Fold this sequence. Notes:
0% of the residues lie in helices and 46% in strands. By secondary structure, it is mostly beta strands. It has one domain (2-70). The strands form two sheets. The chain has a five-stranded antiparallel beta sheet, with no helix packed on it. A hairpin with a 5-residue loop joins β1 (2-6) and β2. It is globular and about 30 Å long. Zinc ion binds next to loops. The site of zinc ion (ZN) has 7 residues, from loops.
Amino acid sequence: xxxxxxxxxxxxxxxxxxxxKGKLLHCWKTRITGDHIEKAGDQVYCPCEQHIGVEEGxxxxxxxxxxxxxxxxxxx
Length: 76
Ligand SMILES: [Zn+2]
């Protein structure tokens, strides 16, 4: 599991089960646990009002630069 943090306030948005390599740009909603995000329609925000992405079908598309990643991905 990795944790996704707000680049603005450092709050953790959610835990994410990251499978595979490469840049994290979209997150499967089914792999997200313990989220602390706020939604307005399909727009996704941090409680500090930083805009972090857009919900699009089964994914949340994250803005590059609006978040930081901690932890290490599962190796498969
Ligand atoms: Zn924030």
